UniProtKB/TrEMBL annotation:
InterPro entries: NACHT_NTPase, NPHP3-like_N, P-loop_NTPase. Keywords: Repeat. It comes from the Eukaryota. Gene3D superfamilies: P-loop containing nucleotide triphosphate hydrolases. This is NACHT domain-containing protein. It comes from Sphaerobolus stellatus (strain SS14). PANTHER family: AMELOGENIN, FUNGAL STAND N-TERMINAL GOODBYE DOMAIN-CONTAINING PROTEIN-RELATED. PROSITE patterns: NACHT. Residues 39-193 form the NACHT domain.
């Protein structure tokens, strides 16, 4: 099954200790809220504003708490962080945390054509939709997606629609950073974030 080894967060890219404390605290508070306004937190800003450092810091904090479900950092031009690896990476990371998801994913990939499919709709339906109903993870789980604007390719529009409509268990939160590209703002305009 496909997996993006190079797309995970990196501790060396975190905020300098003592900086961005208020922003980090706000994101942590949202992620642990029992009744958040939304399960998606979208941090938009121009290039160089520190979004990636915040994403890597949040991922590191949640990893140290045992609450990081997965992280995926898009890098334009880096084939190891391409869009077609997102859903398989997310599914494998969650399967690593939850034996019921692992079992459901194991059933899904018995079909050899699914193991290496790059069709994001097939990946989404088989690796996420059909496995997440088996989730038994207790406690808040955070998924971190950094540099969504660097996700490129002909499937980007479809991916943004899937991501904006993502239905995960109530204890899951999704933290996303991006430049304020028009298609990203449009995709998430109907989502309460």
């Amino acid at each position: 099954m496909l997996y993006a080894n190079g797309a995970r967060y990196k501790s060396g890219k975190q905020c300098i200790p003592g900086t961005r404390a208020r922003v980090l605290d706000d994101i942590i508070g949202w992620a642990f809220s029992e009744e958040p306004d939304s399960h998606i937190c979208l941090l938009l800003g121009p290039a160089g504003s520190g979004k990636s450092a915040i994403a890597h810091s949040i991922a590191g904090i949640f990893a140290s708490l045992g609450r990081l479900g997965s992280s995926f950092c898009f890098v334009r031009g880096d084939n190891s962080c391409r869009l077609t690896l997102f859903f398989p990476t997310l599914a494998r990371d969650l399967a690593h945390r939850d034996p019921k998801i692992k079992e459901a994913l194991g059933h899904a990939i018995k079909d050899p054509s699914l193991r290496k499919t790059e069709d994001i709709m097939d990946q989404f339906n088989n690796f996420i939709v059909q496995t997440m109903h088996e989730c038994s993870i207790v406690g808040h789980i955070l998924l971190v997606i950094d540099a969504l604007d660097e996700c490129v390719g002909e499937s980007r529009k479809q991916f943004l629609k899937l991501l904006a409509g993502l239905k995960l268990p109530d204890n899951f939160r999704v933290f996303i950073t991006s430049r304020p590209d028009k298609d990203i703002r449009t995709a998430f305009s109907q989502v309460h974030i």
